[in-house]
Each structure stands twice: as structure tokens, then as C-alpha cells.
Amino acid sequence: MAIDGKCCRRSHDASKDWGPLHIVSAWASEQGITLGQVAAADKSNEITAIPELLTRLDLSNSIVTIDAIGCQKAIAKQIVTEKGHFVIAVKDNQPKLFQTIRDFFCDHLELDLEELRYREHETEDVGHGRIDERAYLVTKIPQDFAMKKEWPWIKAIGYAVRLTMCGITSSAAT
Predict the structure, then answer these.
(1) Residue 112 region, left (φ>0) first, then alpha (ψ -120 to 50), else beta?
(2) Domain ranges of the chain
(3) What are 124-134's pLDDT values in tens digits?
(4) For the chain: N or C, fewer Cβ within 10 A?
């Protein structure tokens, strides 16, 4: 299930001092249905709404995907406690974790991944005048993973690379 938040356009009302409405949704990707939604509290964001939404869902044996705003220790722990699994994007909001993962993959990329056991997947999307190529690598966390104590729920780490070629016409992309 994919967890994501969206700000509803034109949902604010400055005359009444209402900020925009932020909704966090859980989406069953394979079935194409929304499993639940929670509105973020005023002057709040997805970080506080995600745990509330997760309490309303059966997470057992589910894989929960969340973008980088949901990369929080409490959220990861909540998913695992409820017998779920997670795939969470890591960016600069968790600088130590981000740098540890980046350094690990950079070290192995310098050696052309020769000493690394990993899985990979590649995709290509054509549309809107561009071609997006993506490559994904995933590996088990190394035994000496520096963030293991702070993030004990992490079982694997991955790296995603996207290459976008713009100005592509439909005849050139076929």
C-alpha cells in the first residue's frame, strides 16, 4: 500500500484564517482503491497524519511505501510493530542515514559493484515529450551498517537513479 499526502488546491480561505487542506491517503496499488484517508491537523503536516492513518489499517504482511517525508523512526517502528514491512525513500531529512547509504553505494559503484550481491530492476517510461529511464539496486544491509542501532528495522537498502531525456517526439520514441 502506498501512503502519500496531497494539498487540496483552493481549499484555503484567508478571510476565515483557514489554511489549505492536507489529506494523507493509503492506496492499494494492485487493487486501485483508496484504503483510508486522514486530514492533517491545522498547522501540521504528513508526519503527524501518517501514524494516525496507519492505526486505522491492517498492516500485517503488507508492504507500505512512503516518500521521504515519512522517513521517520517512529513511523518505521509502527509499521514493523503492526507486522508490516516498509519501503521508505531517504533524502536529506535524515542526513546521517542518507549519507551512510550514499557512501555505501558510492564505494561499491567505484568498484563497478563487483563485490556486492544485489538485485536490480530497470524501467523506461515514454510520454509527455520525454523518456524516463530508471535503475534500481537493492542489497541486504551490511553487517557493519553504521545506522543499524538507530534504525534496527532496516533489512535492505537501495539506490535509485533516474535519467530523463527531454524534447523527444513520439516518432523518435517508438
Answers:
(1) left
(2) 1-89, 90-174
(3) 999 988 999 99
(4) C
Cell of 46: 504528513
- 14's grid cell: 484567508
- CB count within 10 Å of CB 76 equals 20
In angstroms, the CA 3 to CA 67 distance is: 8
Identify the CA nearest to 5 among candidates 77, 78, 67, 88. 67
The tens digit of pLDDT for each residue in 20-79 reads 788 999 999 889 999 999 998 866 788 999 999 999 999 999 999 999 999 999 999 999
The model scores a pTM over 0.85: no
The total number of residues written for the chain in this structure: 174
Rounded (10°) CA dihedral 37, 41, 45, 47: -70
Task: Give me the torsion for CA of 166, 167, 171, 174, rounded to 10°.
Answer: -10
CA-CA distance, 123 to 68, in Å (whole number)? 21
Contacts of 15 (CB under 8 A, 6+ apart): none
Q: Is the dihedral of CA 153, 136, 121, 168 positive or negative?
A: positive
CB-based contact 19:12 (threshold 8 Å): yes
Asked if 84 and 64 touch (Cβ cutoff 8 Å), the reply is yes
